Amino acid sequence: MKRTVEPKVLYFGTPVVLISSCNPDGTTNLAPMSSAWWLGYTTMLGMGTSAQTVKNLVERPEIVLNLVDPDMVAALDRIALLTGSEEMSESKRARGYRYVPDKFAAGGLTREPSELSGLDSVQESPINLEGRIEAINEIGGPDSHLCALEMKVERVRVREDLLMSNDRYIDPLRWDPLIMKFTEYFAGGAPAYPSSLARGWQMPPMVSLTSPGPGTP
Ligand SMILES: Cc1cc2nc3c(=O)[nH]c(=O)nc-3n(C[C@H](O)[C@H](O)[C@H](O)COP(=O)(O)O)c2cc1C
């Protein structure tokens, strides 16, 4: 039996990525996001247009995608409700967002030079994808304030222990991406950490499948 429903979010589970982009003053902004997919050497990124990241990428197309390992989840969550934009929408303010320009410091993450641009990459990320934005399109209609950014990947840097013997492949058994599913963090298919984003979105608490249900004696 199925029911027709209108879920608040359709985040079925995608890898978490930290985007490095260039602020107007030349410093690097860092933003967590998870609406990313790959086809060939193109990445499509779905972002809200109020993000400082989008404002930066409209003006300066250089970008680094820092993929997130489950070991980074606490650092990631420390910057989950931060924005590098001084202007904030009412809905973001209501979700508990704060303006903090230096998210490397706020998260306790380490800067690493990129190879193709002056952007700082994230040293803790086992995989860094460098490139540039080639197109930006509005999506979801005029009131959605959403856009799809098309990135060309120009450089791929991978931690050596994740590579298979001939360097052309990343080992699927050793690479375990942090996944965001309906605003909650998952690793290896299991919940990984309490999510500030879920709190901001007022998501109902997850009930463990193995714990007794409500009203169970
Ligand atoms: C795990 C996680 C995933 C997120 N995924 C997205 C996303 O896919 N698209 C988006 O626009 N915002 C996403 N966000 C919210 C952004 O991080 C938020 O808009 C933030 O303000 C962006 O930072 P910036 O304003 O400094 O660019 C996500 C946040 C977290 C913590």
From TrEMBL:
Residue ranges annotated for the Flavin reductase like domain, each copy included: 12-169
Keyword Transmembrane helix in annotation: no
InterPro entries: Flavin_Rdtase-like_dom (IPR002563), Flavoredoxin (IPR052174), Split_barrel_FMN-bd (IPR012349)
Family: Belongs to the flavoredoxin family.
Lineage, highest ranks first: Bacteria, Bacillati, Actinomycetota, Actinomycetes, Propionibacteriales
Keyword set, alphabetical order: Flavoprotein
Top-level lineage group: Bacteria
Pfam families in the record: Flavin_Reduct
Cofactor: FMN
Protein name in UniProt: Flavin reductase (DIM6/NTAB) family NADH-FMN oxidoreductase RutF
